[in-house]
Automatic annotation (TrEMBL):
Residues 61-86 are annotated as: Disordered. The lineage of its organism: Eukaryota, Viridiplantae, Streptophyta, Embryophyta, Tracheophyta. The keyword Zinc does not apply. It is found in: Golgi apparatus, Golgi stack membrane. Its EC number is 5.1.3.6. GO terms for molecular function: UDP-glucuronate 4-epimerase activity. Belongs to the NAD(P)-dependent epimerase/dehydratase family. The keyword Cytoplasm does not apply. This is UDP-glucuronate 4-epimerase. It is a multi-pass membrane protein. InterPro entries: NAD(P)-bd_dom, NAD(P)-bd_dom_sf. Residues 61-70 have a biased composition (Low complexity).
Amino acid sequence: MSYMDVAVPSIPAKFKSEKSYHHHHHRFLRWHHFSFPKLLTLSFFAAAILFAFFLISPHSSSAVSRSSPTTERRSLRTSSSAAWGGPEWEKHVRSSARIRRRPFGISVLVTGAAGFVGTHASNALRRRGDGVVGLDNFNNYYDPSLKRARQALLSKSGVFLVEGDINDALLLSKLFDLVTFTHVLHLAAQAGVRYAMVNPGSYVRSNVAGLVSILEAARSATSQPAIVWASSSSVYGLNTQVPFSESHRTDRPASLYAASKKAGEEIAHVYNHIYGLSITGLRFFTVYGPWGRPDMAYFFFTRDILAGKSITIFEGSDGATIARDFTYIDDIVQGCLASLDTAQKSTGSGGTKQGPAQLRVFNLGNTSPVPVVELVAILERHLKMKAKRKVVKMPRNGDVQFTHANISLAKKELGYHPTTNLQTGLKKFVKWYLTYYAPPSGSYLNKKGRSGSSSNSS
């Protein structure tokens, strides 16, 4: 959650008996752990798809621009040097995908591998001997030089990172032809809540169409991989029950980002039901740490405190404190790997379902919400500098007032146990930040080309 921040081929399906229908409907309800009218879910999903077509249509884009002349629409640029194919490229892909851990190693395609979570997860998989192939388009949502630095880390670990887009069906088909991936860790997504007010179409292309592209490639593979993908705690939206549990309703999103992730969870159910894909969704809660995203508050708070600039702290309309369930990156990676390790095999082959397949969703959080003012206080101690604070009312930009994860299901099913508190985690982040951005002269502000640009001003 970000305060701190294709067409599908039509395939005939066999007619299911009434008994089979009730069986699958029961499985759907059990996955959500609660019962609400089926019509509500179908209506939400249909609305999301219609909204997607509206957003990506040229007419709608121009109409919004005309009605909001003060809002600049910023398109995302990707790497112009991206290229794939050829004997040498194929050799790198196969070598990177080779499993070195026997007999229980896995071979994983990691999308968004140059991203924050993607880099850490890819390195963790590689360290334990798994095969890993990364995929990333290096867009400019934030400074691509940080992504290139992460790519260098992956290269040192022996992970080959393919430059390309998840919506490139030919590229995905080629990768699945070259490698029999046992798993896909799908982390590529358009992140951030507030950026949706600038470029809404990017959320549909990446989080909805991009997910469909990955699922299409997986379900068409001769040997279908198990899928673990990043949903978000944002799906809880306007829910006021705490702590947030997987059994709570998620049909009231507060942002387009949240709506795109909720649509993704419904799409995942469809591909599990029709094609037998084993799918696990992970609802991340405010991930932070070294090599993090510059659009997250802890990151640009650090930058601005060091620069002597004022930082904006939001408060609720009634003066209530804004709080987040901050989760350290190593704990998130632990949950990702546990999800991969416990994922059952998909049951389909070449797009044909052979039997029921696993479908899961888990919260990955820290269970200890911390007020943003306390986050700032911790940063002040580690940076040995006082922040210039400016407290304002939280605007209507899709952010929510608090998040709090119930992780009992992840503990039970995944053995998930977060171990890093915010004090310790921020100490590690600040140490990395000062090392990464500080030139020999000692003044990180003089560093050129590495200052992570933020799409958010507060």
